[in-house]
């Protein structure tokens, strides 16, 4: 075997393969989430990884003080906390708004449609669009930052409502008087409650010609590291172009909202 081959084989044995890198990250995540030291057997069960493979990774991490062992159980070491501090500082420099907008651009490029960030107002009756990346298509949905729409008739509003308890949703539906903004706007509170339940289960909301004629909206929630709701990622498209693509658009929005949430530290 050549020197290069020997080096590569040695790297594999030391845990340098891409698969091992992924295992190291997942291993550290498990230890980070645990309030108590974790045994090798428990780590093997949680990560669905052979104990022999994990033992090799743990020895390497222990050499750098990322983990320490006591009485047969493993916990994070001082090296891991130093890395955590460095990552926190890096995240502070890279503002959350930049990460969100980067994801919005990705979604716009991949879908070809306008992408918005929607947040709820303090009264919980309206959504406000606070950022957008506009489609390059000649025919596209157009909205201005600062525009407001009712919760019940928008994909972003329904996605945000789905993060609330059923009691809070019921209170909202008693408080508002839904109006028909188009010929197909759903205004029946019982039907709206069922729709929001479905959004809660699917993790994505979709509306067709609800707040405006000819507009299809698709939305999913972005969360921060503490699990808090940052807002709704909304993709808005002309209904004529969205027909036949509804499942694809729902998947794209849900996946991108999850990717943005991960970049913000949500697990």
Automatic annotation (TrEMBL):
<keyword id="KW-0805">Transcription regulation</keyword>
<feature type="domain" description="IclR-ED">
    <location>
        <begin position="79"/>
        <end position="266"/>
    </location>
</feature>
<dbReference type="Pfam" id="PF01614">
    <property type="entry name" value="IclR_C"/>
</dbReference>
<dbReference type="GO" id="GO:0045892">
    <property type="term" value="P:negative regulation of DNA-templated transcription"/>
</dbReference>
<protein>
    <submittedName>
        <fullName>Transcriptional regulator</fullName>
    </submittedName>
</protein>
<dbReference type="InterPro" id="IPR036390">
    <property type="entry name" value="WH_DNA-bd_sf"/>
</dbReference>
<dbReference type="InterPro" id="IPR014757">
    <property type="entry name" value="Tscrpt_reg_IclR_C"/>
</dbReference>
<feature type="domain" description="HTH iclR-type">
    <location>
        <begin position="18"/>
        <end position="78"/>
    </location>
</feature>
<dbReference type="InterPro" id="IPR005471">
    <property type="entry name" value="Tscrpt_reg_IclR_N"/>
</dbReference>
<dbReference type="Pfam" id="PF09339">
    <property type="entry name" value="HTH_IclR"/>
</dbReference>
<dbReference type="GO" id="GO:0003677">
    <property type="term" value="F:DNA binding"/>
</dbReference>
<dbReference type="InterPro" id="IPR050707">
    <property type="entry name" value="HTH_MetabolicPath_Reg"/>
</dbReference>
<dbReference type="GO" id="GO:0003700">
    <property type="term" value="F:DNA-binding transcription factor activity"/>
</dbReference>
<dbReference type="InterPro" id="IPR029016">
    <property type="entry name" value="GAF-like_dom_sf"/>
</dbReference>
<dbReference type="InterPro" id="IPR036388">
    <property type="entry name" value="WH-like_DNA-bd_sf"/>
</dbReference>
<keyword id="KW-0238">DNA-binding</keyword>
<keyword id="KW-0804">Transcription</keyword>
């Amino acid at each position: 075997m050549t020197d290069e081959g020997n080096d590569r084989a040695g790297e594999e044995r030391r845990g340098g393969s891409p698969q091992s890198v992924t295992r190291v990250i997942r291993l550290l995540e498990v230890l980070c989430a645990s309030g108590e030291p974790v045994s090798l057997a428990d780590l093997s069960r949680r990560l669905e990884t052979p104990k022999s493979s994990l033992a090799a990774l743990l020895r390497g991490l222990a050499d750098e003080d990322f983990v320490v062992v006591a009485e047969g159980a493993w916990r994070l070491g001082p090296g891991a906390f130093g890395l955590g501090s460095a990552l926190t500082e890096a995240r502070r420099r890279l503002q959350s708004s930049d990460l969100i907008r980067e994801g919005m651009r990705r979604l716009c490029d991949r879908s070809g449609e306008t992408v918005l960030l929607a947040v709820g107002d303090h009264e919980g009756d309206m959504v406000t669009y606070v950022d957008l990346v506009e489609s390059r298509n000649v025919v596209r949905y157009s909205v201005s930052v600062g525009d407001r729409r009712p919760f019940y008739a928008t994909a972003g509003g329904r996605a945000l409502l789905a993060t609330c308890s059923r009691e809070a949703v019921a209170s909202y539906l008693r408080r508002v008087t839904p109006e028909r903004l188009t010929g197909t706007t759903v205004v029946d509170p019982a039907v709206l409650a069922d729709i929001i339940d479905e959004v809660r289960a699917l993790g994505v909301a979709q509306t067709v010609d609800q707040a405006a004629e000819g507009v299809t909206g698709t939305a999913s929630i972005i969360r921060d590291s503490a699990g808090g709701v940052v807002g709704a990622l909304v993709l808005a498209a002309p209904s004529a172009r969205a027909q036949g693509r509804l499942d694809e658009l729902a998947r794209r929005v849900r996946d991108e909202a999850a990717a943005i949430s991960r970049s913000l530290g949500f697990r």
